[in-house]
Amino acid sequence: MLTNDDLQQIGKIVKGELDPINKDIAILKNGQAHNTTMLEAVLEGQQELQKTAARETTVMNLGARLTRKVNDHEERITELEKERNIPHPHKH
Description:
By secondary structure, the chain is mostly helical. 88% of the residues lie in helices and 0% in strands.
C-alpha cells in the first residue's frame, strides 16, 4: 500500500510533467488570441478596401456619364453652329 509520502512524491512527479504542458497550452492560447486579433484587423482592412473600390467605381461611372453628356452637348452645339453658320469661337 502507498503511504502519504509515496503519494506526495508521485504528485510532485506528475506536477513536474504537467508544468511544461500547461506552459505550452498558455503559449498556444496567447498565440490564438494574437491570430484572432490579426484576422479581425485583416477583415476590417478588406472591408475598407471593398468600400473604397465601390466608391471608385461610383466615381468612374459618374465620370463616364459626364463625359458622354459633354460629348453629346459638344456635338449638338457644333451641329447648331454649322446650321446657323456661326463660327466656332475657339477655332482659328
